[in-house]
Amino acid sequence: MTVLSTTVATRPPLGCAAVMMQVLRGELRERELPFTHQREAIAQVMFESTRHLSADDVAAALRQRGEHAGKATVYRTLALLVELGLATEHDFDEGFKRYETKVGAAQHDHLICTACGQVSTFQHPELDRIFAELASEHGFEAITRQVKVFGTCSETAACRELQRAYREAGPAS
Amino acid sequence: MTVLSTTVATRPPLGCAAVMMQVLRGELRERELPFTHQREAIAQVMFESTRHLSADDVAAALRQRGEHAGKATVYRTLALLVELGLATEHDFDEGFKRYETKVGAAQHDHLICTACGQVSTFQHPELDRIFAELASEHGFEAITRQVKVFGTCSETAACRELQRAYREAGPAS
DNA sequence: AACGCCGTTGAGAACCAGTCCCGACCAGGA
DNA sequence: TCCTGGTCGGGACTGGTTCTCAACGGCGTT
Questions:
Q1: CA separation for the pair B72, B55 (Å, rounded)
Q2: How far is CA B47 from the centre of its chain?
Q3: Which helix (H) or strand (E) holds A2?
Q4: Which nucleotide across the nucleic acid strands is nearest to B98, CA versus C1'?
Q5: Looking at CA atoms only, how far is residue A65 from chain B in angstroms?
Q6: Which residues touch strand D (CB under 7 A)?
């Protein structure tokens, strides 16, 4: 098991944003889709971020840069990035979706602290094998998976307090 | 790996509904909460069902029995069942939640066909161990987990057609 | 059996993430 | 530069879920 990060999301290597932007340009050209200002700006925000961003976060980041895009465009562009395989969509049970730049092909999964909201990522070498076995045994063609472990982390005092309370109440509750 | 069911959800043992209802009565009494007609009717629908039900499904099932409950009550009661540990909430990316009676303590996970919507369940003995290891390595107290594998099943001709198309396009896309 | 407390119920309004509409706009090739 | 087909964007809309609040109904007490 490899811990990728204990901060909010996977940190892409430095300078990665520029490379990703070139990939985006290529993918758009290949599909004969225009490379517009809005697509560039939204992709820039995504590629430079080290966090899981909501559509709202993206709009706010654009505003902070003096840029602007209608929310329909933000949603459309995020969906486009997902379709092109440059981003992934996550639902951490907050009532809205979050998006994360997909750097490389390595799949990783999430631990979500329900107390402070912190999300950390991990990779476990056995998970890929297990899901591959499962799929073949069921005649199932697996396309994506979502593995989320909800619980409490030990970062803040409040989280540790909740951990203790939960252990005392017992997992039976 | 044990296949629990290839139908839509876990099938509780016969006569289970009555037992579950007694458990509900006890839990409510313990918390000094009233056991109302609506709670009984909604719980009955849940406990007798072998499928993952949406709030709408529950309301429809009530109508079919000549009963009725306001939608606020349906949502509140489902949330209550989850809180009491008698049901679990699922999000299969359909834009709404589904609920399933939690029978016993055995955790199971889901394979979701994105073509026909069929959900099958599985248990894998190694998953529990892996998540327990992960949690302890991260100083994390795991409370629940959600493991969902999205893909295409081989039940219908349309699903198999999609499987073939996906395999030819390659997982790289 | 009647009373009273207090949580529950329910109809509809409110909320809100996400989608749709459609006229104006623009990237990119001719 | 002109053309053209896809994109943009503001606002209306959708639909699942939550909120509001007055009326109601368990259930323990008297």
A1: 10
A2: 12
A3: strand A2-5
A4: D16
A5: 32
A6: A 33-34, 36-39, 68-73, 76-77; B 28-29, 34-37, 54-56, 71-72, 75, 79, 95-97
Listed in order, strand segments (DSSP E) in chain A are 2-5, 53-54, 87-90, 98-101, 109-113, 119-123, 141-152
**In this predicted structure, what is the pLDDT of residue A13?**
53
Q: Which residues of A touch B (CB under 8 A)?
A: 1, 3, 85, 91, 93, 111, 113-114, 120, 122, 124, 126-127, 130-131, 133-135, 137-154, 162-163, 166-167, 171, 173
Per-residue pLDDT, A9: 52
Nucleotides in D strand less than 7 A from protein CB: 5-11, 15-20, 25-28
Q: Average per-residue pLDDT in chain A? A: 89
Residues in chain A with CB shorter than 8 Å from the CB of B85 are 173
Whole-model pTM: value is 0.86
- End-to-end Cα separation, chain B, in angstroms: 30
DSSP structural state of residue B74: H
Burial (CB < 10 A; 0-12, 13-18, 19+), residue A82, is: middle
pLDDT along chain B (173 residues), means of 10: 44 74 95 96 96 97 96 98 96 96 84 91 92 94 94 92 82 47
Place of tokens 């889901």: B110
Q: Give backbone dihedrals phi and psi of B76, rounded to 5 degrees, phi first.
A: -60, -40
pLDDT for residue B119: 93
